[in-house]
Design goal:
single chain; alpha/beta; Rossmann fold; 5-stranded parallel β-sheet; 8 helices
């Protein structure tokens, strides 16, 4: 992971990547980023979806989003195959746990890594039995978000 002192929160739509130390230190990497990597952001908060999209696209990732688990499953079943799913737990229509349960029924979808991103209290307890690959607590720091995405998707330095 990069050695950065950025602690901006993902849930803050006023993040200005041009002023962040992470973005400044890695400006040259953006041109070399792996543009084929796709991240699906599933969250009912449009500000969070938009902010995460901007951050990840700035780093060269492709981003798709959905506002609940049902919409995410629809995208996945219609052919979208992301390299990583960032999933909120508490959403209307279909929650994160319901999404995980449905996802596990399809062998193709069950291979896609899922990282839960939540503000829910005691998240470790709530995700203990879910088939997930990681957990981030909101507000998520910029370094933590990008480090997690890089761990699953790689970055422009050939890390896969």
């Amino acid at each position: 992971m990069k050695n950065c002192a950025v602690t901006q929160a993902v849930c803050n739509p006023s993040i200005n990547l041009a002023q962040d130390s992470y973005a400044s230190q890695n400006e040259g990497m953006r041109a070399q980023s792996d543009y084929s990597k796709l991240v699906l952001v599933v969250d009912d908060d449009p500000d969070i979806r938009e902010t995460v999209r901007e951050i990840l696209e700035e780093q060269g990732y492709r981003v798709d989003d959905a506002e609940n688990g049902r919409e995410a499953l629809g995208r996945l079943r219609s052919g979208s195959t992301p390299d990583l799913i960032l999933l909120d737990l508490s959403m209307p229509v279909m929650s994160g746990p319901e999404f995980c349960s449905e996802r596990q029924k399809d062998p193709k979808l069950s291979r896609i890594p899922v990282v839960v991103v939540t503000a829910t209290g005691n998240p470790e307890q709530k995700v203990a039995k879910l088939p997930i690959n990681g957990l981030l607590r909101k507000p998520v720091g910029l370094d933590e978000l990008l480090g997690t995405v890089e761990r699953f998707c790689g970055c422009g330095q050939g890390i896969n």
